Amino acid sequence: RRRTGTALMHALHEEFRSRGITKSVLEVGVSNVYAQRLYGKLGYRCRAILPGYYRGIEDACRMVRIEADTG
Question: How far apart are CA 33 and CA 15, in angstroms?
Fold first, then answer.
């Protein structure tokens, strides 16, 4: 694995920090365990299951990350 996804997410979080954004939210299919694992390592936690989110076929997990206040 090249870790491209991790690098992109770190860059995104750095941009969020520079803009003062402390909370990020994303949705990922419940069957996409690899993405859930990646996001989990980046500090995201599943906060809700969204039934039928993907075209009524698959549920999604809404994942939330809150940046720690370092100021």
Answer: 26
Are the C-beta atoms of 18 and 45 separated by less than 8 Å?
Answer: no
Sign of the dihedral through C-alpha 47, 49, 53, 59: positive
Rounded to two decimals, the pTM is 0.87
What are the tens digits of pLDDT across the range 9-64? 999 999 999 999 999 999 999 999 999 999 999 999 999 999 999 999 999 999 99
Burial class (CB in 10 A: 0-12, 13-18, 19+), 50: middle
User: H helices within the chain, ranges in order?
Assistant: 4-18, 33-41
